């Protein structure tokens, strides 16, 4: 067992009650992680609460049929008590407390031991009592698979296998993003043997496009802007688009992949206008650092995929600044 596993294991062994959480705007890896790890801890006889800042996206709700996941803002008082009084808080699929948004202050103030299990870069180990950080992993669910198996692989029930499979499938973009390696397929093969159904799980998550979602996508595609001989593409979704189709940020999953599917594109940037800020998503190919572009705007991420939130800007003003930065980082390589 590695040292990082041992520390996390020690905390698990000596703790009776846990609060699990993940990042704002949770994706399949985030929800898969809290559900899989939660069910594992429950099977070990632990008391587990899962509390997130954001509601679970509609297409991931099936992973939580018992409605175990609480939304912090639904009952901040009670949720704060749970966080303050538990033995350990586990932060999954992010290594930054501020990505838990409304929960950040109370998590920091809680005397509970803090565990972080994550695959993003930039972790500050001193912020946690135990860290399992494997940045070469395609998904936090991939780390969790190893971690649970290092205890006993009989903990991987069909339910846990399905949650882990969802995390790996979604974070690899259905097995096509760079960190899709043979290990990912070996783990997924094990998960199928444990009962995960790849046809059912893909169908639940990906084949859920409503008419309005398709129309928003059409509007998004018709507004794409190309620069630098078609190597850069910028895509935009405004609040007015969301309103027009009655949709939200939950419904634009996959738009960045569309940008990167265009022949010749090296960098794709999404501008999503939220109520109080603009969410930027950077995607790049090869040795162009999307994360540095994201860091430039106060965010972070993986080498080929980064994001940032910019406050107090409007999209039209922000675009030329982003384009300048993208060209600068493209020319540096
Ligand atoms: Mn992830």
Please describe what this structure looks like.
This protein has helices at 3-14, 28-43, 76-85, 104-109, 140-151, 158-171, 182-193, 198-206, 211-222, 239-245, 255-260, 290-296, 315-332, and strands spanning 17-21, 47-52, 69-71, 88-92, 113-118, 130-133, 225-227, 232-237, 267-273, 277-284, 300-302, 305-311. By secondary structure, it is an alpha/beta fold. The model has no long low-confidence stretch (mean pLDDT 96). The chain is globular and about 60 Å long. It starts with a helix and ends with a helix. It binds manganese (II) ion (MN). Manganese (II) ion is lined by residues 29, 93, 119, 139-140, 171.
**Structural class of the secondary elements?**
alpha/beta
Largest sheet: 6 strands, parallel
Oligomer: single chain
**Got a strand count?**
12
Gist of the model:
By secondary structure, the chain is α/β, with parallel strands linked by helices. About 40% of the residues lie in helices and about 20% in strands.
Name its key features.
Diaminopimelate Epimerase, Chain A, domain 1, binds manganese (II) ion, inorganic pyrophosphatase (n-terminal core), 42% helix, 12 strands, 13 helices, six-stranded parallel β-sheet, alpha/beta, six-stranded mixed β-sheet, 333 residues, single chain, globular
